[in-house]
Amino acid sequence: MALKAVHVSDVPNLDQVPENASLSLYSTRLSKGLEFNRAASFRIPKFLVIGHRGHGMNVLQSSDSRMKAIKENSILSFNSAAKFPIDLIEFDVQVTKDDCPVIFHDDVILSEENGTVFEKRVTELCLAEFLSYGPQRDSGKEGRCLLRKTRDGRIVKWNVETDDSLCTLEDAFQKVEPSLGFNIELKFDDNIVYRQDHLIHVLQVILQVVSEFAKDRPIIFSSFQPDAAQLVRKLQNNYPVFFLTNGGTELYYDVRRNSLEEAIKVCLEGGLQGIVSEIKGVFRNPGAVPKIKESKLSLLTYGKLNNVPEPVYMQHLMGIDGVIVDFVQEISLAVGDMIKPAMSVTAEDSLRERKGETESKSKLQFSQQELSFLLKLIPELIQH
């Protein structure tokens, strides 16, 4: 029911986060645990590489075969991503009509029967019907045809080189490499204004599965829905919560979604730990990065530019904490080549720094290689 949402501060009967609350993430993939408490801000100890919808999102109309290699948001995609030196995978979670958290990006499922294309909202399906689309786990079963609408409005078959069945959040916890962290995006329809009690119910259903199956797996929650992001922070204090934003590259009726400055406000009001922004929004407003850092918030990014090594390296230089990428193999290897050597400090460097002999960090100088990266990046940035 599309009723006006109540502000998160008015939520009744929610457990308040105690003053000594702490959040922690640990993975053998991370050099250190990620820790947060009220006295010391949540801190990401290394530059993170996060696989978008696992091994990468599907763009069925793309001429790049990598965008159609493995079915997105599937167990196969998640474990394929785990083969590379990444830290987390990002995926989208919705809740079915019978209260089961499932992993699927689009708001609706498109299919075809007797030559007629129809669509059904994921949240209006029961689990059994949701799982009936696409390849089936039982070899003797044939799933319903799965279609997808492209950005230009065409409806095409969801054909990828290596397909896989749809899955639940529980499946992911049970079947994905345990050292791989999860960035769980709490997915809601941009065109619906949700009642507060509905948001709470959905989030509690998801949190129940996380509580039961997460074990020691690193987890970050994120959402474009500002009330949902603030609510999940109130409902639990074990895992950090990030607010997703387009950073002003697209405009929405809810002004909280329309700029990085508004995103900072959402985080500070709700006690969130960070922002995930479309990278073009950051590059068009680089002055927001120090504001985010001054607010003791972490910053991750997503977007097409994150599939290019040079923009990724520039983000490292800017102090951004990590990137969500589609080309996990290429970018994870590029990060290893470009960033890790730059982060290493010799004993001599440490001694000079202690003696105050190093130049002020504010006098950032770019090498010829870094200037070359900038020049390659500029044409990308001026495109809309």
Structure characterization notes:
Residues 47-335 form the GP-PDE domain. Its EC number is 3.1.4.46. One of its GO terms (molecular function) is glycerophosphodiester phosphodiesterase activity. Keywords: Glycerol metabolism, Hydrolase. It catalyses: a sn-glycero-3-phosphodiester + H2O = an alcohol + sn-glycerol 3-phosphate + H(+). The chain has 384 residues and is α/β, with parallel strands linked by helices. The protein has a single domain (28-105, 168-381), classed as TIM Barrel (Alpha-Beta Barrel). Helix content is 31%, strand content 19%. It is built from twelve helices and 16 strands. It has helices at residues 75-81, 127-131, 169-175, 196-213, 226-235, 260-270, 279-284, 288-294, 309-318, 328-343, 347-354, 368-381; strands spanning 22-25, 34-37, 48-52, 88-95, 101-103, 108-113, 116-121, 147-149, 155-157, 167-168, 181-186, 219-223, 241-245, 274-278, 298-302, 322-325. The strands form four sheets. The chain has an eight-stranded parallel beta barrel, surrounded by six helices. Strands 1-2 form a two-stranded antiparallel ribbon. A two-stranded antiparallel sheet has the order 6-7. Helix 6 links the parallel strand 13 and strand 14 (274-278). Helix 9 packs across helix 12. The longest helix is centred in the middle third of the chain and has 18 residues, at 196-213. Mean pLDDT is 85; it is low at 1-22, 36-40, 342-355 and 357-364.
Major sheet: arrangement of strands: 3-4-11-12-13-14-15-16
How would you classify the helix and strand content by structural class? alpha/beta
Count of spatially separate domains: 1
Count of individual beta strands: 16
Low-pLDDT runs: 1-22, 36-40, 342-355, 357-364
The CATH architecture name reads Alpha-Beta Barrel
The CA-CA distance between the termini, in Å, is 36 Å
Radius of gyration: 21 Å
| Mean pLDDT value | 85
Number of helices: 12
Largest sheet: 8 strands, parallel, barrel
- Could you name the CATH class? Alpha Beta
